Amino acid sequence: MQYNFYIVDDDRSIRQILKNIICQYNLGDVIGEADHGITAVHDIPILNPHIVLVDLLLPVMDGIAIVSELKASNSKAHFIMISQVTAKEMVSKAYTNGIEFFINKPINVIEVLSVINKVKEKMKMQEVIQSFEKAMQGINMLKGLTAHQESTGYSDKDKIKKILSQLGIIGEAGSNDIVELLLMLMETDENSRNHMLNQKMSELYNRLNLRYVHQYEITSNTAAIEQRIRRAINKALSNIANLGIEDYGNELFTRFSNTIFDFGEIRKQMDFIRGKTAYGGKISVKKFLEGIFVILKNE
Description:
Blueprint: E1 4-8, H1 12-24, E2 29-34, H2 37-47, E3 51-55, H3 63-72, E4 78-83, H4 88-96, E5 99-104, H5 109-152, H6 156-166, H7 173-186, H8 190-198, H9 201-216, H10 222-246, H11 251-256, H12 263-274, H13 285-298
Protein name: Stage 0 sporulation protein A homolog
GO molecular function, one term: kinase activity
InterPro entries: CheY-like_superfamily, Sig_transdc_resp-reg_receiver, ST_Response_Regulator, YcbB
């Protein structure tokens, strides 16, 4: 990180010596200087230097007054006092008002380097602490969000959509029909649900069509519903087969290939994709629905 410096001293030669040291030892850039406090108080909030070297004894406004005023205006700069004064009361007052280190006059290169490097180390440590604090805030926010989700829970609709998203068909037109069909089945007791699943699929499509009319005032037809659902499930079959071709041990492939599809049909689809056969695997809408119920029950 390149640090910026601002120097306040009414002695031009002192300012030049400090600039030379900063430049010669690649300590940073001097972005401003002043020979009295009024200019410094005006410039520093605008230039926003990292480190300010300020003389204690200045006309009109001394170094302690400069630091006090800048600190009061929430300046983030780090202040190093330059002074010949050794009186304990004055030094104590300077530290109380925000001075972090002293450089004694006459200027000594080794002391300047040592003090500036100490300030830099302190700044780096503050940056590390701030990064940890931000990280902890992020973790706490995540914990809070997770706790909120655990307390409120995911809706059945959200859980179904998550599965369809994993299958890669959430954007398919038939995905909405699958969600509504599953919700319709979940709203009944287990005996009624089993009875409905034992019926012909055309009966379920008719029930879903009536649900659209009564709950959403949407007019559709059974054939269109069936076509959308079968197209979406076929897409899911192809997606899972492709996962198996790329990685037979893929977690989603392992999870879905035997649960919502017949594994033999998945193998046929894989061979079809590879160009080994002329026909792909077949789907069973009923097995697909029953498989999703199994997954939802185990989550």
